[in-house]
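Example 853.
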Amino acid sequence: MLRLCGLQFLLLIHSAVWLHLECLSVSGPLKDMDFNVQEGGGPRILHQFTLEPPAVSFRASGEKAGIIDIDPKTGILYINGSLDWETKQVHKLQVESVDESGSRVKGPYAVTIYVEDINDNPPEFNQTEYKGVVRQNSRPGKPFMYVYATDRDDPKTPHAQLSYSILHHFPKYFEEMLFQIDNATGAISPTKTGSYYLDPLKQDTFTLVVSVKDMGGMTTNAFASSVDVVITVMESLWKAPPTIHIKENSTQVHPVNITKVQSNEPDVIYDLFEKEKLPRLPFSVSEDGTIYVTEPLDREEKDMYTFYVVSKDSTGELVEKPLQIQVIVEDINDNPPVCQQDLTVVEVQENEKGGSNIGTVLATDMDEKGSLNSRLRFQIQSQEPQYPSGSLFYIQQDTGTLQLTGPSLSKRDSAKYSLTVLVSDPDFKTICDVEVHVIDINDQIPIFEKSDYDSVTLSENTPVGTVILEIQATDGDEPATGSSLIVYQMKEGDPNNTFIIETDSETNRGFVKINKALDFEAMPVYNLVINATNPEPLVQGVQYNESSLATFKVFVTNVDEPPVFQKPVYKTEVSEDIPVNTLVMTVEAYDPEGDSVRYSLEGDVRKWLRIDSVTGQVYTASLLDREKEEIYSIEVAVSELNNAAQKSKAFLVLQLRDVNDNHPQIATDNPTFFCYPVSGGEKTLIQAIDADELLFYSKFTFSLADEMNARNNWEISKYNATHAYLSPKHGNFEEKVYDVPIILNDNGEPPLENKVNLKVSICKCSTENSCFIEIDRQHSWPTAGQAIGILLGVLLIIGLEQRTQKFATSIARQSPRVTSWCHSKGPSFQLFNCQTKPQSYRSVPQQGTILSA
Ligand SMILES: *[C@@H]1O[C@H](CO)[C@@H](O)[C@H](O)[C@H]1NC(C)=O
Ligand SMILES: *[C@@H]1O[C@H](CO)[C@@H](O)[C@H](O)[C@H]1NC(C)=O
Ligand SMILES: *[C@@H]1O[C@H](CO)[C@@H](O)[C@H](O)[C@H]1NC(C)=O
Ligand SMILES: *[C@@H]1O[C@H](CO)[C@@H](O)[C@H](O)[C@H]1NC(C)=O
Ligand SMILES: *[C@@H]1O[C@H](CO)[C@@H](O)[C@H](O)[C@H]1NC(C)=O
Ligand SMILES: *[C@@H]1O[C@H](CO)[C@@H](O)[C@H](O)[C@H]1NC(C)=O
Ligand SMILES: *[C@@H]1O[C@H](CO)[C@@H](O)[C@H](O)[C@H]1NC(C)=O
Ligand SMILES: *[C@@H]1O[C@H](CO)[C@@H](O)[C@H](O)[C@H]1NC(C)=O
Ligand SMILES: *[C@@H]1O[C@H](CO)[C@@H](O)[C@H](O)[C@H]1NC(C)=O
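Predicted structure in complex with 2-acetamido-2-deoxy-beta-D-glucopyranose:
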């Protein structure tokens, strides 16, 4: 076998470039052969074919590309130059050997040269600049544009394997990128942070410098190119429409299109969720986001609706934050005026002068108060009889006040007039019936049957309500009118209303009753003067005189009465830690008849006290505890020593002063949470509470437990004596519930400290900054974010369950699990208020209420 070495070759093919060639160790007879040759690299020898007589030389034909050839004499197959993969990847040649006469001896044989790629081409973008548009609040990871680069190298090799990356990001407000690029596809999308913070009002143009590298971006000597990508941020299409006003009781054919929402994403499924618990939600949403009201609304039933519209992808995941829709139902005049009484009766004395106000017709209207729809006007439509004239009465148009127009009425003309009063609002009319009764003038005074009713003697314990006397006066005026009805009153002798007089309106008989307990010791005798009067005024010239008065005496007799306490309530304040047998107070009672008394306690259920039965001194009988009972209220009884039945009671109230004996806690009435993604620096208030009295927790101190995670993730700062701010220190929080160990100190006497684990949820928020959390439906539900779940009523969940059947039929029920909302498949969401938002880039958050019902 021939060994061909460089030096020998140098002689054959006079060129210095051969020098670097390695020795070619292969030679052989003519046959079909394949060669792999790297592109570039310059001239080289591939093979030497050996001559077999009678052949004397070789001949090559085919795709020689001007540089591939075989030396006829030596049989050396060589390339005099560089092959280029990008130009031609395979060269096919035919080689044959010939004899002296030029006739073929062997062959032709196929010699195939496969050119191998080397990485000799940098990637190139197919545009010099790219422009893209992204909507505010677009879904993170959802591409809104692509960049595209090519590389001429062999796509089967890493030489043409491209990897995209973002080199620069202008302007840069945040540590985190607002945009990301898929390194394989060149798809550009907002990051989670970007989805949250992008806002055309703050910054509407960004320039990214995107780089592409070949060799899969893996080696440092890969080729790279870069290009500018200019991104315009546009307002989100997905935004809540302004408050919608719908006229109630609409006659349009329902459903009626009231507004439209538009997702930033294509092909989303829209759905509605109620915010309030309603028997039904009279709204629906169509596939294209048009929202309809499904039936006429009634303002008098409900004048405002609030609900959410959500956009979901085909798997049921929420694509964007839920939007709140608010609908106000506007009043129309759909309620007629209503008379307050079927028949309004008015009495008028014969002597009433023209212009006198004789009564008012009352009517109401259910339409919106203060609007013209409930404005009522009054008008007399008819008067029966029309004698002596057709217009005896006048009604004030806007108040319904009835007056006499002209002369006084006379019973001889008519004792009764029937009026129809037309009450109208701008669209409706109602008739109210009125009867005017003409009554006699009041020219007779009540006359008592006797002027002196003598006396009665009553024991002081006669029960309240007892009738002690019946009286009678008579009145000559028209019966059953205000001119003859008699009202009896105690004119003199009863300053404290110890007595009361009731009248039988048919007979005018009066009944004197005891109104308040009698007390011999306070008032043994009453000298009473009773007067009798009419509710209607007397006609001019007539006056009540002595005949309308009567006198009466009441003698009160003494009975043995129970002892009485000096005070109805004995109250004192003591420290909760006083020792047993401490004197806390002394009660005192006396007996009206001067008998000796003895004291006892009643209702001392905690057995905290005892009383000295003779002196009335009250002592503690055991240890007290303010946290069991802050105000201990029992009764103290006193009775006559010789007649235990003569007994009375007073209240005994012990107010316990606090001693610091309770550990401080964190108030959990409101769940603590931050909207995801967290950017760091948001803050929310947390509150410390303590079962001890105010005095002892007026100065709580808050600190984080000395644990690495706590200190790295959170920050606490004092707000006031009871509240502190909690802030996440950075933005790398997942959507889940974190335990934050907090140390509370109440700074009391003695100071008490407590370590509590505060549950803090990081959750996706709605546009109203409410936390959206999926409820685990089948297990006991509050597993995710326990603190949160528990507070929100079962009602809401029930409400949602009902709605599931109605609105969410397309949603597959998933097996129970607890995840954050963005992975949820079911409609079971709950909403919470967001308390915090970053101050730096967005508007200041509003506090909303979710559970309004
Ligand atoms: C090789 O190429 C060079 C320049 O292209 C030429 O001068 C030389 O004659 C060639 N040699 C052979 C053996 O073809
Ligand atoms: C660049 O390539 C992409 C993807 O093939 C293509 O859609 C786009 O039209 C190209 N741009 C230009 C300017 O050729
Ligand atoms: C490209 O992205 C994939 C997945 O996103 C990642 O695993 C890979 O390491 C990335 N390649 C480069 C070169 O960054
Ligand atoms: C709606 O209006 C009609 C008259 O237009 C009225 O008869 C009906 O009572 C109204 N309904 C309600 C609920 O107010
Ligand atoms: C809804 O109403 C608006 C305004 O009246 C109208 O422009 C729109 O075409 C309507 N949409 C549908 C789906 O009827
Ligand atoms: C009747 O007695 C009452 C109560 O003292 C008093 O207000 C009223 O003026 C008296 N009426 C007459 C007519 O004296
Ligand atoms: C009326 O009440 C006052 C105060 O309660 C009391 O001092 C007075 O004795 C009472 N008078 C009568 C007649 O009961
Ligand atoms: C009171 O007046 C009536 C008439 O109104 C008269 O009959 C009666 O005698 C008078 N009584 C006294 C005591 O003056
Ligand atoms: C501390 O601030 C909270 C929230 O503003 C407030 O409700 C609370 O009353 C304040 N506490 C004190 C002791 O001032």
